[in-house]
Amino acid sequence: MSSNPSKIMIDEYDAKLGYHRSVLPLDIRLGITTSSSSSSLEHPLLLRWGLLATGKVAHDFAQALKFLPHHTITAVGSRTIERAEWFARRHAIPTAHGTYEELGSDPNVDIVYIASLHPDHKDHAVMALNSGKHVLVEKPMTMRAEDAQLLYDLGKEKRLFVGEGMWTRFFPAVEWTRSRIGGGCNDDDDNEGEAVVEPKIGSVRVIQADFSIDGEDVGPYPTDSLYAKELGGGSAWTMLPYVVGAFSLPFGSREPDRITANGIIPDGDYDVGDVAIGMTMTFTIDDNESHQQQQSASRENNIDSRPPPRNKAIASGVVGYLAESSEVTMYAGKRGRILVNAPAHCPTSATLISKPIGSRGNGATSSDSGGDSSSSNPTTMHVQFPLPLPSKAILDSGGVQLPNSMGFVYEAEAVRRLISAKSYTFPQWTPEESVGSIRTIEQMLNQINQ
Questions:
Q1: Confidence category of residue 322, pLDDT binned at 50, 70, 90
Q2: Long-range pairs for 80-89: beta carbons < 8 A, 24 or more residues apart
């Protein structure tokens, strides 16, 4: 095997998942794990899942697991045995439990996927961890940052996997986007051993993201669980985690310097959550590109070194239930911009528009457009990563109910790779980012509720 993890070749199985040499998952590129391929391991780990809850998201996750050869669902738990047995029949799951505690103590379960109501995530995850199970908790992991930190600390203490289900980070289109953020070019060897130069956009300075739907397409206002605050409803806990996660992609665990949020919280007899939030955030960039620009500006102007405006980034976005938005995420840097195309929370394509430094994105130069501007024309790269196709077994048991849910395969397979490597958190969505995102949401809600 190559000593450089980014040059590990992948086989037909990985290609079926939509991976390509230029977009290996981050855990493989960092050398934390190796290829998903069964041929890369003498005895590949068979991961036995227990599903905690039986709603739409759990249904779609179960369907995606059926695509993966080294995963099996051995049990399901619900608040009633009738519901658990119904779900088990639908998905050919051998064991149904009428309580979540029974699921946690099932000896044939390695990992519990927690898809219960948002306010219950912490207690269900603690129960599963104390029962010796790895956990994958649907986002939001918890509704308080300190509770999320507690779960990560408990997992570390018990040497068990703990992850928040921010599935967006595992889609090949997002893995590819991450690899195109930064300075310079990415030089890898292709199958023929020839150099391939991939453009990058430089340090991200501007981000725009949105995720808004017409809530009444999902359920009636204000009685549906989408809105009910006591059930974890409101766009702050359903839509906002995706936009906050999009904002943090270029910055990792670095939290915003400043957050400004406004929202719409209806008045009335029902205790409902917010139905729309608009926000801006600023970040400080600390990288070589900004440092070099700072030093260059200081020399040219004969002034003391000080942070220039370009060491800052700004992000703006909107989420909510008022109307359906475009749901495209845009990252802009000095060398171009990337569009994570709709639906950006589960994307199958991205577009990179690169531009020569000193030109505007429309092909005009920053000085005068009277001459030949062909050298300053932007170039566009469009990449597509089709989802795995559902099998007959998946289609016969109802297909998927939510957009692009076959994309759960990327997250689930990352979990298996990491547990197999005895690495118990995601590099794609680190504990620091996970906890920080919840803290950011809490700050926004505090502003909105004042």
A1: very high
A2: 83/54, 84/54, 86/54, 87/51, 87/54, 87/58, 87/59
Encode pLDDT of 274-307 as tens digits: 999 999 999 998 755 544 444 444 444 444 555 5
Q: Taking the mean position of all CA atoms in its chain, how far away is CA 72? A: 23
Residue whose entry in the numeric block shows the structure tokens 């970040």: 283
Residue with token string 């808004």:
212
Burial of 392 (0-12, 13-18, 19+ CB in 10 A): exposed
What are the angstrom distances between the C-alpha of 305 and each of 285, 291, 298? Answer: 16, 10, 6
Which residue would you say has higher pLDDT here, 299 or 343? 343
**Tens digit of pLDDT for each residue in 142-171?**
999 999 999 999 999 999 999 999 999 999
Task: With CA atoms as reference, report the closest residue to 174 among 401, 432, 429, 390.
Answer: 429
Say how far apart CA 378 and CA 13 lie, in whole Å.
36
CA pair distance 165, 129, nearest whole angstrom: 16
In angstroms, what CA-CA distances link 298 with 98, 284, 304, 333, 335?
A: 68, 19, 6, 22, 22
CA–CA gap between residue 217 and residue 195 (Å, rounded)? 49
Residue 29 near residue 419 (C-beta atoms within 8 A):
no
d(CA 159, CA 257) in angstroms, rounded, equals: 33
List beta partners, residue 2.
none
Q: What is the pLDDT of residues 67-93, one digit of tens each?
A: 999 999 999 999 999 999 999 999 999
pLDDT of residue 303: 47
